[in-house]
Amino acid sequence: MSGLYTAFISKVLFPLHERLKDHSTVAAHRQLEETQWWSADQLLSLQLERLRSLLSEAGRHVPYYRDLFRTQGFDPTQLGSVADLQRLPFLTKPLIRTHVEHLKHAHVRGLARFNTGGSSGEPLIFFIGNERVSHDVAAKWRATCWWGVDIGDPEIVVWGSPIELGSQDRIRALRDRLLRTELLPAFEMSEAKLDGFIAAIRARRPKMLFGYPSALTHIARHAERCGQRMDDLGIKVAFVTSERLYDEQRATISRVFGCPVANGYGGRDAGFIAHECPHGGMHLTTEDVIVEIVDREGKVLPPGQAGEVVVTHLATREYPFIRYRTGDVAVLDDSRCACGRGLPMLREIQGRTTDFVVAADGTVMHGLALIYVLRDLPGLRQFKIIQESQLETRVLLVTDPGFDAALLEDLPRKIRARLGDAVHVAVEQVDDIPPERSGKFRYVVSRVEIASQGEVSHA
């Protein structure tokens, strides 16, 4: 019966849902299922065709790119290869902040506004259209199918975005029930909450888990401490994304939940970039995304060398992301995966992580609980949250000259609302926030250790 229900959802209800939202998800998914088996040359030809279309549209109808192409003397119709993309300058977070309105397609309406803190602590506001949403959903759908999981199979999502958590109106709640998706908020992970999460997972008996690797690991460790078995539920796969996946986390999640762990890489800004297949290949969504790896001077690096990930998303005509510097660090792979797919791969993602923070009463929360207090403040250029102890937190801010200082008055109260009234919050405006000694930026640093027994100690 469960299989029949899943088939009804994936073949009837979900396509109807997407059609009503004016999304082309089903058609995009159908194409991705076919093109994943194409040769490297075929995929490169597809990229070039779609790149010409994207750049031509941007040059005609997107004010920022119309002016840029004219200044650069760049003619999209003369694009001879994907490598010619390197003639264009990078798109950066500061450029998007400066030209946020001029990056919109002149004739598109109904764009959805998004923001992200970014792992460097740079708030970023941008817009996404239906084409981009459709292709990203289709790419994730294809990846779940690699693991034998379809839309409509029971799913537990451990997530923390206020977009998801704040929009559970009747229609959305009904949709989630029909799709058999249950959302567990990753922000707060007290003992009581963790007990509830474990009970919810056991009751749902999901085919897949989806969430932050740190959050799923935290739940898994709590289950082990409580002697609660979780490997008898028939979970097929645990999808993890949004943070770097460490080997220890993969081992813990797999051991406790009795399933393989599939790593995913992407973001709201850059899109669905890559996903792991059952053979271990971290495949790029190359039909939709052109990935370049560049050094500090912006020179494109060959496979095998680590550098910054630069993304051109080919389904962003409404709000183009062309040569977008993600700030992530990764390595391309030039080998072929044993699965037989022609999709190229990432060898390593050295990316970024998001820490947990610990409230005054010992409640463990995802670091994003504090990020959302800050990231949408107008005029805020960069930030870093440093939790020195359970009772002391520092917030470093780099602001634009026109930043309204009055916005800072209520900031400590908002932080204390998450961490506890007894917490002292020091807000410091600084000229610059340097990277860690490793060269990476972290926007949340907690010096409060979560001990292996579940107790909190001061490091």
Q: How far apart, in Å, are the first and last alpha carbons?
A: 52 Å
Structural class: alpha/beta
User: What is the CATH fold-level name of the domain at 356-458?
Assistant: GMP Synthetase, Chain A, domain 3
**How many E strands?**
22
Topology:
Layout: H1 2-20, H2 25-35, H3 40-61, H4 63-72, H5 93-98, E1 112-116, E2 124-128, H6 130-146, E3 155-159, H7 162-165, H8 170-179, E4 181-185, E5 188-189, H9 191-204, E6 208-211, H10 213-225, E7 237-240, H11 247-257, E8 261-267, E9 271-276, E10 282-284, E11 289-294, E12 306-313, E13 321-333, E14 345-349, E15 356-358, E16 364-366, H12 368-374, E17 380-389, E18 392-399, H13 411-419, E19 424-429, E20 444-446, E21 448-450, E22 456-458
Helix pairs in contact: 2-6, 3-4, 10-11, 12-13
Please, could you describe this protein's structure?
- The structure is a single chain.
- The protein has helices at 2-20, 25-35, 40-61, 63-72, 93-98, 130-146, 162-165, 170-179, 191-204, 213-225, 247-257, 368-374, 411-419; strands at 112-116, 124-128, 155-159, 181-185, 188-189, 208-211, 237-240, 261-267, 271-276, 282-284, 289-294, 306-313, 321-333, 345-349, 356-358, 364-366, 380-389, 392-399, 424-429, 444-446, 448-450, 456-458.
- With 459 residues, it is an alpha/beta fold.
- It has a domain at 356-458: GMP Synthetase, Chain A, domain 3, CATH 3.30.300.
- The protein has an 11-stranded mixed beta sheet, with helices on both faces.
- Helix 2 crosses helix 6 (130-146), helix 3 (40-61) crosses helix 4 and helix 12 packs antiparallel against helix 13.
- It is globular.
- The model is unreliable at 162-168 and 451-459 (pLDDT under 50).
